């Protein structure tokens, strides 16, 4: 092979580098989903919301978590930018498409629709952040303030914000639909991240696939349950 | 048996192309798809029209030359078969069948259904080999190879370079082709000295040719006439990462 | 011109070493100034081009396919022979040499074949080092299988895709040299003439198949590795594009064509099923390791099977005729190809064929499945069974395969001397395109061996002996009158083909030629039929030049025009084959003359025909001139080839 020209800086310019970035950020976002889901699942165990509020307070005030929040946004941004770059490069790789095509014969629709699913999720995320994160972080909303059980500080009653938000059935429906999109995004994304990083072994492939499928069903299901349960609580059914 | 064809006709790389309708009658279900195209061409020549240009050679599924996107799929509906190994029994009498060339920026159209796949050759030339000049080899049995690895290497080596993976991939990626060669040589002890360099060079050339990126859709594996596995792509990902991050090779 | 085979003096075992020690060399600085043209990129061409480039020569390589990787060597299934004796079963260079000579029915040159057996061991080493994934045993060492015509296990293989893997090894070596800039590769280029200047080959005219333009290329030497001419029969196991054009043009420019009548009919192919058929598919000979060939003992049973009233399974064991095992007990189903083919023809001519056309016999795996288990049989024949099933819609694990012989390989080709040089100075010929090593019949797994031997280990030594005198020859400009003339002739011929505008397609005439050849110059020939065939071919050739219809333009991608040029050459070659078959009043290997047989076995005539028939071109339709190269057997005693 001829004289060397490869630079390690070229790694992330290469097609494979973009895959690694996609996989790594994807796995990172998956880990966030797990934490987020765990914290929010507290709403199921306590109708008053105080258990959830306590966890949320910890998450909102702990310095490490706050740093991770910045990292999370960076990861998300990278995932989005990288994804868009891949999308446009891949479109350019086939300037003229097929007049007649049967892609369903060889692949699943959601594996081919990661960009669309991702865009839907991004749209949802903006709404979601406006609903909760912006409120809790930037708006002086005295309604939400309540004393912390240790009586030294205030803490936000985010649970009441949830109740408030999910009393609107339209919002509930949008949230549930977004979780469907998330489920499909994960159904392909979970194992795909492992594959992209080369973490593929005949002995463990099945396990990864099963874990991915389980994750893609369970986590979005729990998320979807939250607005539903809270809505049902607001109308007094539960 | 009768088929209605919609065949892509295009005079050369720069000309505009279009689908042209043909009806071929008097067919036998035991004919191969290419023999059906032969019949069509025979009619066209006798009418004084130019026959449909298409690539084909061995007609036994091994040379990798034939390359048609038939009825919306690379090499047509038959699983694990090249175009030449597709038989008309896969269709019903009176079916309408689209026949198009591979579509990829890296495979420009030469004429009708014929494309230029020399990008694959250039990728191999960039590093898809073991550097051993004639006469340098030691006795073949001085280098035992784990049978299991040898079998996996053979699985990857079965690639015929037809380009169906690129044609089927919604992203127009060539990862299955490239990873098959990287895997074959990475699995064998003979391939170890150049393992890092090979992965770097081949991926670099693949990117330069304008192929798309892999998003693990798996259409390539599903349409590959030789059933090359996605695990090869994972191995390539691993090797390229190791070579980029871990090795001193530049 | 007298034929000088340039066989070195000395003992058989020492000839090649002796030659190599005394061959002239070209020093590295001079190699850079020397250009070599290689036509064809199969095993012989790709290995030669890569090796010459490694040595430092400037190489220009040509193939008509879109990539050098697609040459038809890729379709060889079974394996490659080598005298490694890894099995410790008594193999040796001498035994491989002997088996090859005997397999060739004592019509090959001793010295060439011995050299082939000698370098066969280097080939396996080289290919293994390139990463060819040969089959392995559990201990990690190389596995072997047995093949027709040998009583030792010396065949190395890579599942049922040995040719593919060997070719990809050579192709990768070639691509490496292309990447390094040592080889200029011209894909989709077809050689349409060789250019001779002052009696030496100095270049070629090639048609760029994309633009249709005729291009001129200079070389200090020209190497043809353009494969065999089996497609003269229209239906064969060759690829659709396989053709004789390069070799034939060389022949017309003065290169002698040797033994054109020796045609190998492979016994295990899928029978012809209809008129639309474009090619015949081979089922590897390795299947005969475990498959048993049979037809019913009675014509009645055979008829019932043909008419679909009975199935193979309905015929009781005692009513089956395992004719190869019966006639050739010591080799049984593994007897050489020509013998197995003729035996199949004999059974079918006797009215015991088992396919509707009457031309087919069974290849049965039931016993092997019983003995080894279905999984072992499946594993052993990799993709051959699914391939058969896909083509025929029948599962060979459940019902016997149906097979019949088909044209597969041509032992004849351009005459070459020990150095692989043709009768034109500086024009070399390798692989199936030459006549050299297989005599009248080629053993299974020997074609791959010969192609790679020629390309990797023979030509790179012998060409230096010639090129050492050429280092002061400056590149000849391609506007030289010889180039002009050759290009003009090629151009005129294409214009002529396009201008005829008759009624028949190229395919129509090719099919007619195939029928003549198969009927009169196929598995069995006789003087009367051959005489008739010559006349028929001459008439067909006239018909072609009056009535063929070639569409499209000359300066365009035009596969019809390419095909027309190839068929025009086949129409001339076919006549030479018939002439050669008529001249050879004996039966040997792939040439069976009905007049010369003893109890159904071929009867050689060593007293009168122990020679290579090298034909000199004297004009289309004119009688060619015969030059005889007497074969001297100094180490092997001639005997009746018996596999009983």
> In CATH terms, what is the fold-level topology of chain A?
3 helical TM bundles of succinate and fumarate reductases
- Spatial strand sequence of the major β-sheet of chain B: 2-1-5-3-4
- The CATH architecture term of the largest domain in chain B is Orthogonal Bundle
Number of separate helices of chain A: 8
Order of helices and strands of chain A: HHHHHEEHHH
Specify the structural class of chain B: alpha+beta
Low-confidence stretches of chain B: none
- Unreliable stretches of chain A, pLDDT < 50, 5 or more residues? 1-6
Radius of gyration of chain B, whole Å: 20 Å
Name given to the CATH homologous superfamily of the largest domain in chain B: Alpha-helical ferredoxin
Structure description:
The complex is a heterotrimer of chains A (238), B (250) and C (644). Chain A has 238 residues and is an all-alpha fold. Chain A has a single domain (15-91, 112-234), classed as 3 helical TM bundles of succinate and fumarate reductases, CATH 1.20.1300. Chain A has 8 helices and 2 strands, in the order αααααββααα. Chain A has helices spanning 15-40, 50-61, 63-92, 109-112, 114-138, 158-165, 169-196, 205-234; strands at residues 145-147, 154-156. In chain A, helix 5 packs across helix 7 (169-196). Chain B has 250 residues and is α+β, with helices and mostly antiparallel strands. Chain B is 35% helix and 11% strand. Chain B has a 5-stranded mixed beta sheet. The radius of gyration of chain B is 20 Å and the shape is elongated. The mean pLDDT of chain B is 96. Chain C is α+β, with helices and mostly antiparallel strands and 644 residues long. Among the domains of chain C are: 266-408, Flavocytochrome C3, Chain A, domain 1, CATH 3.90.700; 481-610, Up-down Bundle (Methane Monooxygenase Hydroxylase, Chain G, domain 1), CATH 1.20.58.100. In chain C, 37% of the residues lie in helices and 16% in strands. Chain C has 19 helices and 23 strands. Chain C has a 5-stranded parallel beta sheet with strand order 5-2-1-9-17, sandwiched between helices. Chain C has a 5-stranded antiparallel beta sheet with strand order 11-15-14-12-13. Chain C has a 4-stranded antiparallel beta sheet with strand order 16-10-22-23. The model of chain C has no long low-confidence stretch (mean pLDDT 95). Chains in contact: A-B, B-C.
